Amino acid sequence: MPLQRIDLIKGRSSAQRRAIADAVHRALVESTGVPEKDRFQIVAEHEREAIIFPPEFMDVEHQNPVLVQVTFSSGRTLDQKRQLYARMAELMAEAGVPTAELIVNLVEVARDNWSFGNGEAQYAPVPRME
Q1: Residue 104, SS3 per DSSP
Q2: Given a cut of 80, is residue 1 above it in pLDDT?
Q3: Would the pTM of this model clear 0.85, i.e. be above it?
Q4: Candidate list 2, 35, 54, 98, residue with the active-site label
Q5: What is the per-residue pLDDT for 117?
């Protein structure tokens, strides 16, 4: 289960916000094997002054960045991550976001750090009592 957090500066249309969210999820499905229905996203809009960033960092200029943080179980290869970044940038461009404006952060956690409800750790094996 990747938890996808997408932070934007206010001002984008509802359709573009949805296209951005769709792009993030589609890139995860296509590049890292995330199941299509495994979609948990938070899209948050902020006032311009609430997102602080330099106008240029690592030789990339930013004016209206889209910040994407994905928390998911560890195990993806560096190649899969590179494919994810590239595919997400391609799909963002189709959604009207310049590729330079996409900033992505991946947070990898052990599978037993997830609970999908009912107070259970569904991915954590229950020790057998003998």
Answers
A1: strand
A2: no
A3: yes
A4: 2
A5: 85
Is residue 128 included in any domain, yes or no? Answer: no
Q: How many domains does the chain have?
A: 1
The two tokens of residue 82 are 């590179």
pLDDT at 127 over 80: no
Residue 52 lies in a domain: yes
According to the model, what pLDDT value does residue 21 have? 98
pLDDT in tens, 62-113: 999 999 999 998 999 999 999 999 999 999 999 999 999 999 999 998 888 8
Question: Which domain range does residue 53 map to?
Answer: 3-113
Coil, strand, or helix at residue 43? strand
| Interatomic CA distance for residues 91 and 98, integer angstroms | 10
Distance, in Å, from the CA atom of 21 to the CA atom of 19, rounded to the nearest integer, reads 5
Instruction: State residue 4 phi and psi, 5-degree precision.
Output: -105, 120
DSSP letter at 119 equals T
Residue 13, domain member (yes or no)? yes
Catalytic residue flag (residue 2): yes
Q: Of 4, 126, 7, 5, which is closest to residue 64 (Cα–Cα)? A: 7
- Asked if residue 126 is part of any domain, the answer here is no
What sign does the CA torsion over 90, 96, 102, 104 have?
Answer: negative
